[in-house]
Write a structure and sequence with these properties.
alpha+beta, Rubrerythrin, domain 2, 3-stranded antiparallel β-sheet, 1 helix
Length: 45
């Protein structure tokens, strides 16, 4: 089973979960969102 991806917008704080990855960059507030991984969550605080 494919693992779902979670993305975060550093501008507005939007968080989304991608159910089907179509290979298209996820964009919010005009900028590509960052994929949240356990390592990234620790870095963000």
């Amino acid at each position: 089973m494919e693992q779902k991806k979670i993305y975060y917008c550093r501008h507005c704080g939007n968080v989304i979960e991608v159910l089907v990855d179509a290979g298209i960059p996820v964009v919010c507030c005009g900028e590509e969102m960052i994929e949240l991984t356990p390592e990234k969550v620790q870095q963000l605080g």
